[in-house]
Amino acid sequence: MKKMKIGFVGVGDISSIYLENLTGLFREVEIAGICDLVREKAERAAAKYGIARIYKDMYELFGDPEVDIVLNITRPDEHYEVSKAALLAGKHVYSEKPLASTLEKGAELVALAKEKGLYLGGAPDTFLGAAVQTAREMIDSGAIGQIVSAAGYMKCRGHETWHPDPEFYYKRGGGPMLDMGPYYVTAMVNLFGSVNWVTSMSRTTYPERMITSEPKYGQIIKVDVPTHVAGIMEFENGAIGTLTTSFDVYPAGSCDFIEVYGSEGSMIVPDPNNFSGKIKIRGKGDWEERDLTFDYSRNSRGLGLCDMANAVRDGRVARANCGLTYHALEVMLALANAEHRREHIRIGSRYERTAPMCRGLEEGILD
Prior knowledge:
Layout lengths: L3 E6 L5 H10 L4 E7 L3 H11 L8 H5 L6 E4 L6 H10 L3 E4 L7 H14 L3 E3 L7 H11 L6 E9 L19 H5 L1 H12 L2 E9 L4 E3 L9 E3 L5 E8 L4 E7 L11 E5 L3 E4 L9 E4 L5 E3 L12 H12 L7 H20 L3 E2 L21
Parallel strand pairs: 1-2, 1-3, 3-4, 4-5, 6-11
Antiparallel strand pairs: 6-12, 7-10, 7-16, 8-9, 10-11, 12-13, 13-14, 14-15
Helix pairs in contact: 4-5, 5-10, 6-8, 8-10
């Protein structure tokens, strides 16, 4: 069987786990080559992971007939431009989150992929890991009864204390909702179905931020996006969900998780930024920890990309498809902007949940 070949556009911080997993874990794809605006980054990655080809730019990569899927790991506000160019060149695309920085750009990408008959998918793929897949199976089986409500929390003091180049987190396409919200919204949609309505309130506590990490220590960032967003969502199953994302606060204990409340019990779903974690459930008694019943409990980024590669090969729907990434984008933008409109916002898109992950196969083989 011919392996699907992946071309990397961008080899920044997140690329290392993709490179590690695509060269050492997943066995149904291989890397055709990589490129980055800073060639030295590409050269270091190529040397470390044994990548044979470095392209001079993304257009040379797009022109390589060996490349089946373009992996877009550029900065958030660059996702649209890179994905559009790749689709126009006739390549399938898998993009880091979010799909685009505006809903109009996201819709254009979805329409272009459909027009060209190409696959368009993207991160996050953590919902395909052991924790969320196990939680979904338990919820679908009625383990805690009818779902009444859910609450997600992601709170931190921002990325300027540790990230080497954090400015983009505070510009268009960034902020806690578009940066970290994808993990929570994607997980919740896969647990409860599409979102029908949202409303929210938001604020920007610090209009300027000082970088305290190297190499840009002391530089001032002007903040252009809301940095604390508290939202409410109505899901198609009738459940009411809340989601708080913040770059403004110091967390009070461990709070990066999703609480689910059913008519017959409650569940704690661990941090959806991870593939694993402890699922806890309770009814009238004490909390009980439940075993994870699906595969991929370690950091398996690239799982959604490899599933999409198999979907291209088999002619089926990819699990991390653009229907999901577009719906999540619409929800997140509405949550981030509802404060300005002071109203409930109807979500126009719908997402049809795909089949659960297969399990019990050899590690690195998905179907």
